[in-house]
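Reviewers asked in the last cycle whether our approach scales beyond single polypeptides. To address this, we selected a multi-component target totalling 786 residues and predicted its structure end to end. The input consisted of the following lines:
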Amino acid sequence: MSGFIQYFLSVIDPTQNVGFSRALPQLMSSGLISWWLMYVIPVGIGFLPGIVCWVVYLVNPAVIRPPLPARTPQAWPLVSVVIAGRNEAASIGQAIRAALLCGYANLEVIFVDDCSDDDSVVIARRAARSVTRQGSDDNRVRIFPSPRRNGKASSLNIGIRMARGEFIAIIDADSTIQYGAMQHWLLPFADSRVGAVSANIRVLNSSTCLLTRLQELEYAMKFTVTRYALARMGILPIIPGMGGLFRAEILHRLGGFDTGLGDDTDMTMNLRKRRWKLAFSLDAVVWTIVPVTRRHLWSQRMRWQRNLVKIRLSKHRDQFVLGRYGLANAILAIEQVIVLFILPWVGLIGLFSVMLDSGPFSAPEVLTRIYWIYVAFLLVKTLIARDFASTPQPSHFWLLFLYPFYGLFLRLPTMYAELCELFRIGAKHPYVPDHIWQEIPWW
Amino acid sequence: MTPITAPTAKLEAPAANRRLDLLRMIAEAGGKVSPIANPRAERGYEYLSPFEDENELNFLARGDYLEERFLERVTLCPKCASHHLNVREICPSCRRARLASEGLLHHFRCGFVGRLSEFTTIDDGNGSRLCPKCNRRLHHLGTEYDRLGKASVCLECGVITEHPPVEAVCFACGARSSAEDLVSIDVFSYVLTSLGITAIRRGSMLDRDDELLFIEGMPVYRRSVILEFIDHEMKRLRQLKSEFSLLVAEFAREAPGNDGVALLLPCLTRMRQCLREVDLIGQLTDAVYVVILPQTAQKAAEALRKRILAELAPPLLALSAVQITERIHLEQVLSRRSAVGGP
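The resulting structure, written as C-alpha cells, was:
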C-alpha cells in the first residue's frame, strides 16, 4: 500500500520528474484519443468559462455581482412562490416558512398538494399560520389540496393558474429560499428579454454523510460555477425545478408545464425556442436536500438522465435543426449532446483503452497523471465556487481527492439510464400517475 | 376560571334597592331575561324595559345573583360598532366582490389547468370541449380530463382562488374591514340564581361573608367560591402533584324562582354526612352540584360515589366521579356542567 501511495505521489513530485511540464506536451502530442475526449474537451467546456468569469470577477466584481438598486419594499413586484408536492410533510413547513420570511414583503406562497397520504396539508396550514400576521387579512399563503393525484407538472399548473404575481418562483417542497435571495433573483429581469432566472442551488444537508459532502462539491462546481458561466455565454441549459423564477405572463401564455417528467428541462427548452434569455443569479440562493443514500442518488440521476434523453433528444429534437432557433441554441444543442450523451461513453471507453493499450494496467503513469491534472482543475473550480458563492465548506476540500471516483460512479446511472431509454426498459416512472402516463404521447 | 367577584363593599342604598327591584322583576318575568333581536338596536339585540340596563344585569351576574347564559354572538364594525354589515367574499387581488364560482378542468395530455369557460364547447353533438393549450378535443371525463373542483373566479381581473377572503363593508360608516378585524360581542340571557332568590326573599342584597360564601341554610358553597376552590386544587396538583377528584351530582330540576333549592336541603345534608371534613360541596347551577375530594384517587372517589348513591334516593338523577390529573379533565367536567345547566 505504501509503495502504491509513493508511486501515486511520485508523478507530481518535482524531485522525481519534471511533472506537468513534461507530461502535458507528451500527452498533447500523443494523439491519445481518450486523453482528448476524456479531458481536453471537458476541460475546455467545463472549466475555461468558469476561469474566465473568475478573472473578470477578480478585476471587477460588480460585473458578476451587480449591486441591488435602492428601492422601497413597495416598489418591488409581487412574486408568487408556487410549490407542488406529494407526501412532503417532513419539509413543506420549512419551505413555506422560509419563503414567507425571506425578507421580501410583496410575496405570496401557493402550495398545491398532490393528493398526499400524509399530513402535508395540515402542516402547510400550520406553517402558514405560524408566520402570517395574526388577526389580519393575510392572504399570502394559499393551499390547494388536489382531490386526485395529477403529478408534479399539473400540480404546478394549478398553482400557476392561482398565482397573482408578476413573477412566479417555482421551488421544490424540500427547498428553502435564503433570506435576501428574492431581490437578487429579480435583478436580471431588468433586462426585458430575460424570461427566467435560475437560482443558485446549494446543499442544505451537506454535513450528513460523505455522499452529501461530495454532492455539495458537485453542486458548487456544476450548479454554481458552470451554470453561471454558461448563463453569461447565453447557453444556460436549464432553469431547475428546485429554484426557478419566471415571468408570469410567459407561463400563462404557454399554458404552464407539460405533463410528464422533466418539467423543468421541458420548460427551459420552450423558453429557449421562443428566444427568451435565461439568466443565473449567484446571490439568489435556494437550499435543497440531496439524497443521502447511494440508492436514492442512483435513482435521482437515472431520472434526470432519462428526462434529458427524452426531452432534449426526442421531444425537442427540432432544436438540432441549425438556424431554426438561433446560434446560441444550436451551440447549446451540440454542447448538450457532447457533454451529456457522448462524453460519458467515450470517457469510459477511453479509460479502458488506456488500460488495455499495452495490456491491462500497463499505463498506470498516464492514468495517474490524468488523475492529478483532473484534481488540479477541480481545485481551481472549487476555489472559484468558494470565491463566488462561499461554497463548498473549506473542511470539505480534501474530498477533491475522492471526487474523480465519485464522478466515475455518477457516470454509471447516467449511462444505464441512456441504455434503458434507448431500449424502453422501465419507461413508466412512479412519479407520474397512470391516468396521466397513458395520455402523454412523448413518454 | 371565574375569580371571586362578589361585591366586597356594602352597596349604596339606592343602588342596592334598584338592583333588588330588578331581581324582583326578573323573578316575576319567570326568572329569566333574554334580549330580543332588533335591527334598529345599536348592537342588534336589546333587553326590553325594564331590563334595558345591561350594566346592572352584568353587575348582578358578577355577584352571582344572576347566571349568564350564552345566547348569540354579534359581529360589529371595528370602526363605528354598527352591526349593519355587508359581509361578502372578495378577490384577493383587486379586492372587488364580483366573483363567480366556476369549475376547473385539467387536461391530462398537456397538463393545462383552466376554467370551464376556457375550454370551448364543440358543436359535435357529444358536448366535447377543446383544450386552449393543445387544441385537442376532450371527449371522456376521467380518462382524458378531469374536474379539479370549483374555485372562485374574479370577473374583474380573472384571478382564480379557492378560498377567497371575506370582507365586511359597514352600511353606517362605509369602513371596509377584513373578517379577522371584525369585532365580535357575545349576547347573554340572565337567569336568576339561588343567591338572587335568597336576596329577593330577604328583601336585601346579601353582604355578610357567610351569605356570600354559602347558599343560605345549606352546607354548600356558592358557584364562584367552589370554582375558586377547584382552581386552588388545580394549582396544588400542578405544583405539589396533589391528586384530587370531583363528584358531579345532578338533581331533578326545579323551576327557578321558587324554593326548589331548599327542597334539596335534606338530600345535600345527607350527602355532606357521607363526606370527610376536608371535602367541599359547591353549586355549579341550580340543579348541578360538585364535590371536591382532595387527595383522592379515582378508585376511592368511585367507592364514595356508590355509597352516596346507595344512601340517596331521587331527586338525585346522576352522580359521576372524575379524577382530575390534567386541566382538560376539569374543562370536560365544567363543559358537561354547561351542557346540563344550559338553556
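The two ends of chain B are 21 Å apart (CA to CA). We regard this as preliminary and will revisit it once experimental data from Aim 1 are available.
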